[in-house]
Specification:
6 domains, elongated, mainly beta, Immunoglobulin-like, five-stranded antiparallel beta sheet
Amino acid sequence: MTRLEGKVGYFHTYFHTRRCSCIPGTYGLGGVAPVEVKPSANPVQVGDSVTLAISPLTHAQAGRWALGADPILVWFGDSQDVFPSYKGRASLNISTGALLLKSVTVADSGIYVVEGSNPAFSANASLKVLAPVSNVTVTANVTDPVEFNDTVSLTCSASGSSLSFRWHDGSADIRASGRVHLSDDNRILTISGVLRSDKGPLYCIVSNTISNATSKGFSLNISYGPNDVKLTISRSQKDAFKTGSNITMSCSAQSSPPAQFQWAFNGGMLSREGQELRLENIQKNQSGNYTCWAHNTRTLRYSSLTMPITITGNSEVSVEVKPADPARVGDDVTLAISPPQHMHAGIWMIGNTVILVWIGDSQDVFPAHNGRALVNTSTGALTLRSVTVADSGVYTVRGNSPELTANVSLTVLEPVSNVRVTVNVTDPVEFNDTVSLTCSASGSSLSFRWHNSSSDIITSEHIKLSNGNRSLTISSVLRSDKGPLYCVASNGISNGTSQPVLLKISYGPDEMTFTINGTQNGSFHTGSNITMSCSAQSSPPAQFQWAFNGRMLSREGQELRLENIQENQSGNYTCWAHNTRTLRYSSGKLSLDVMLKSVNPGLWSALR
């Protein structure tokens, strides 16, 4: 029998022939006051060190530590023996009886028992060792679902212990609702009757009591449509055209993948495919109902829109705006009668106001248009010089020899200028603040849209447009919303873009990294010089402070330098990052193990 086996046998006989009456975890033998075991941390992260202290302090002459029924070490006086499976990881403070475990693993979880003699006592405590969260991934049963048809199940997996799960859509936590279901442990997110607004990106956030991690954004390629079919004709709202004209009909639809288009005339399918249908030299027999059919080959759905077209004969007189309608403020505009007419006399009016009259080769211009209006007595065409917004309206010509009446609508627009953006706050805090941007511009009949760096901004859960798209509101602003943001104002004749707006968004600290001498290694020999470095994602840059075994040090800054280190400097070093703008904190921890360069084998030889 070895000396170690003999000591174990002695303790087994001694402590099982004694009897105590005590509560679980706190024991006393032979009248000694009860004691308890207090871990220095609980739970403990895998790889860290933990001390199991006896309280109140008891100077036992001999004793043993065990994890359940498995012995860890025994001690007599000033000597101690560590069992093989704990060699190099377990040690005892002879003065206090405290047990130190280094580089703990999940397998070190359990009930720790300490038994001592002279004085006699026994106590236990439960310790839990957790692996930090890592490798958070999301998988889906289908990544290209069809809107309304499919049910999507997203499964989150991660490494670590005692994990909890939650889901995020980029702006808020996802909660169960009519279409959204979560499994009992929240690992599986199920979306029934998926909608295009469910595309994501979606995130899985996994945590335990010592750490957390987030998956990469998971986006769904949702097939939808076609719907919202729109049909336009030759950039005009007119539905009547003269024989001999050329017209182009254009069709569009909301669809993913893009829809395929086919055309029909009076219910009969045409051989034309594509978004445009061009008709040249049209005749009266081409009057009728034109239908655009949109088809999505993935959703297998169809949608259509029909528009009636009327082709009129050349005998009808119309008025054309030249060079174009709408016209720009300051331009010269001609209202030409088509086909040209050689009228002996006539009158031009805007609304009920007379502009001019003519008989033969003479003409009289009324005062309001004197110097700006002129008629070509040969063709009846009216020319307006340097038009203003006030010149917009319906113009009517009435002629004699031959008799005719025709009218046309003219719109005069002021070009876009002075596009500016104002913002309620330019230095918001991520997740906290709502940013409101307002666009203003000079010009008439303006429309507005917003641009973020490379693409148009569309509404979402945290982005809203209002006031005719003049106002952009971003709730719970994210660092990705920083811009540059632009407002684009346009009308029928021009457009303008504002100067870029850059939001100085304060965020963090997060995504901390922690290294020692440029590595993740935490073991060094006594006498070494080491430098610990800490960094974090933060704007403005984070301030850093250091702690050792839970006690704050007087050191600040990203680096902590230790020179000529000794064994008593082994332990847990924590870097605290603080953002003075967001008022948030984040921390990272690394265990440092300082070892003697050489070990005196005398003690171990004496105990064998």
